[in-house]
Design brief:
Rossmann fold; 7 helices; about 280 residues; nucleotide-binding; ABC_transporter-like_CS; binds adenosine-5'-triphosphate; 6-stranded mixed beta sheet; alpha/beta; transport; NitT/TauT family transport system ATP-binding protein
């Protein structure tokens, strides 16, 4: 099936249609490595994410998904093109975004509560207020009874919940998530996905969610975009996900429409994965 690439200025099909939270226009990213030719990781490519829209980015390993996210976070300066956040050109770090990586950044010497509260304290919030909000957020992620635990006393899924609370307590308008549930087992990933959707539904932040797991991408998002194999990767597919919300990320996988979407998207994604792995692919 042919997919129409959403181009700058196109109407967004999301609930939060209208305002653009993130606009990457003709963005290209290169890495200069000493003694080697410049590596052109991302060719000029465009991606728009509406305010309140949940967009998943999938693509073969090493294609440039994290690189695109890093450019949106302001951690990387593109070689060309424009990054705009809520209509303003991005200069320096993206202060409107919260970032959740595959490896959480919890401080091992601090309790779950202190790990969440510190995210506010470094922004100038007074300790009593930061602790109160930290408690509230740990409750929202189902850890009300674990506030005094240290990270090594928590399971992988529980640590991930603390990390999620640590990001959300700051109320960022944009969530940048880079394979956040990657290290978790399949069952815990689905539980985390459902939790994320429940929290997201409260105030619908714009989300860019990088994953190598197409099922996870479809279960969570409003749109799935596909990146081509690198180098000079770009976005080559853009699929609206018209599954009803609210969703349970486990149950939704049994929906016939889910399977239809999976087939359509995999058809295009597979060609890129094959390019990356060449003849190793079955
Ligand atoms: N700091 C860097 N210096 C040089 N090359 C880099 C750097 N960061 C990334 N790259 C290269 O850019 C390309 C894209 O990397 P990136 O991490 O964005 O891929 P990805 O799609 O997120 O991969 P994965 O799915 O395996 O996590 C890769 O070829 C990688 O080797």
């Amino acid at each position: 099936m042919e997919t129409a690439l959403r181009r700058p200025g196109d109407a967004m099909a999301s609930p939060g249609a209208g305002a653009l939270a993130v606009a990457l226009d003709d963005v290209s990213i290169s890495f200069a490595i000493k003694g080697r030719p410049v590596f052109k990781a991302v060719a000029p490519t465009s991606l728009h994410v509406g305010d309140g829209e949940f967009v998943a980015i999938v693509g073969p390993t090493g294609c440039g998904k994290s690189t695109l996210l890093n450019a949106t976070a302001g951690l990387l300066k593109p070689a060309g093109g424009r990054v705009s956040i809520f209509g303003e050109p991005l200069a320096g770090l993206n202060a409107k975004a919260g970032y959740l990586f595959q490896q959480d950044a919890l401080m091992p010497w601090k309790t779950a509560l202190d790990n969440v509260a510190i995210a506010l304290e470094i922004g100038g919030t007074r300790r009593a207020e930061a602790l109160a909000q930290g408690r509230e957020w740990l409750g929202r992620v189902g850890l009300a009874r674990f506030t005094d635990r240290y990270p090594h006393e928590l399971s992988g899924g529980q640590r991930k919940r603390v990390a999620l609370a640590q990001v959300l307590v700051r109320d960022p308008k944009i969530l940048l998530m880079d394979e956040p549930f990657g290290p978790l087992d399949a069952q815990t990933r689905q539980i985390m996905g459902t939790l994320l959707l429940r929290l997201w539904a409260r105030d619908r932040k714009a989300v860019m969610f990088v994953t190598h797991d197409l099922e996870e991408a479809i279960a969570l998002s409003d749109r799935v975009v596909i990146m081509s194999a690198g180098p000079e990767a770009r976005i080559i597919g853009d699929f609206p996900i018209d599954l009803a919300r609210p969703r349970d990320t486990a149950d939704i996988r049994l929906d016939p429409r889910f399977h239809q979407l999976h087939r359509e998207i995999w058809n295009q994604l597979k060609a890129e994965v094959v390019k990356t792995y060449g003849e190793e692919m079955p």
